[in-house]
Design brief:
heterodimer; A: 199 residues; mainly alpha; Four Helix Bundle (Hemerythrin (Met), subunit A); 7 helices; B: 94 residues; 3 helices
Chain lengths: 199, 94
């Protein structure tokens, strides 16, 4: 195999195109949110107060930090520092898991209070609050799924790096996984203030 | 397409951007606790947009990419604006 076709820029552009479609997917949910917000402003504020702002804030810090570590991992692989790359990927995956563990405790608490889609307690609080929590569970759930997929991708790429399949000369896979991870962070940047911080 | 690899971004740059992102998060949380009426949501969205640009241009290396990538982003944002705009022409004037 002496001559091999490679187009790293093309591969990155393909990833960007995919990420644009992801933004459109989430924006549909945000549009639903904004329509419901303009219809039920009071109820949305009331429902938002039921969310735990500490869980939300900690998870924001966790995701921003994981975005930093994966960005650093790309620099590390470019400089050929394989060990640092592996550590940084490991930290990113650990932070992703921490995010999901937080989410588990947060949702357990809310479900414990009788707040989950289709619950009677929610139905008693009227259509505005129900609308808020249905959208919250769907959007945060879809985002959580993306966290899980991103962490899996990064783990696979870390193993490939350890095996020498991703190198300082050939690291598009790591770059594209990092791009995906940053998208996960971007979605949360909008999700957090819109769901947790309405007054 | 010509094969060009990016210059590695120094660790320092990323760490500064991360600190900026954390500061902006603090600002969003602080401002959200003050009642500014409907202004609250616009401040939240404004700060979130600044944070996203930092992530997109620095963390995602868009700064270093060719024009094609930037046009792509612009096209996506235009589609999004049309999507949101047309929805609200309908919703607000019902």
């Amino acid at each position: 195999m002496s001559i091999e076709h490679r187009d790293d820029t093309g591969a990155r552009f393909g990833m960007w195109l995919f990420l644009y479609t992801e933004v459109i997917l989430f924006s549909g949910l945000f549009i639903l949110y904004s329509m419901a917000l303009s219809k039920f402003p009071q109820q949305f504020a009331e429902a938002s107060h039921k969310l735990n702002i500490y869980f939300g804030s900690i998870n924001t810090i966790v995701l921003l930090t994981s975005s930093l570590t994966i960005a650093l991992a790309v620099t590390a692989i470019q400089l050929g520092r394989i060990k640092q790359t592996l550590i940084l990927c490991g930290v990113t995956v650990a932070l992703a898991l921490l995010f999901l563990v937080n989410k588990y405790f947060e949702w357990s608490e809310e479900i414990g209070h009788g707040i989950y889609p289709g619950s009677e307690h929610l139905a008693e609080m009227g259509p505005g609050v129900t609308n808020f929590f249905n959208l919250y569970y769907f959007t945060a759930g879809l985002h959580g799924l993306h966290v899980f997929i991103g962490a899996t991708l990064i783990s696979v790429v870390a193993v490939m790096t350890a095996k020498g399949k991703v190198t300082s000369d050939r690291y598009t896979l790591l770059e594209n996984s990092a791009l995906y991870w940053h998208l996960v962070d971007l979605v949360w940047i909008f999700l957090f203030p819109l769901y947790y911080l309405i007054l | 397409m010509s094969e060009h690899t990016h210059e590695p971004v120094p660790y320092r740059t990323f760490i500064w951007i991360w600190l900026a992102l954390l500061t902006l998060t603090g600002i969003t949380i602080a401002v959200s606790r003050i009642n500014l009426g409907s202004l609250n949501i616009w401040v939240a969205l404004g700060v979130a947009s600044i944070k996203s640009s930092l992530v997109i241009f620095v963390f995602m290396h868009l700064r270093q990419e060719s024009k094609l990538f930037k046009i792509g982003l612009l096209v996506m944002l235009t589609i999004l604006a049309v999507f949101i705009g047309f929805t609200f022409f309908d919703v607000l004037y019902r």
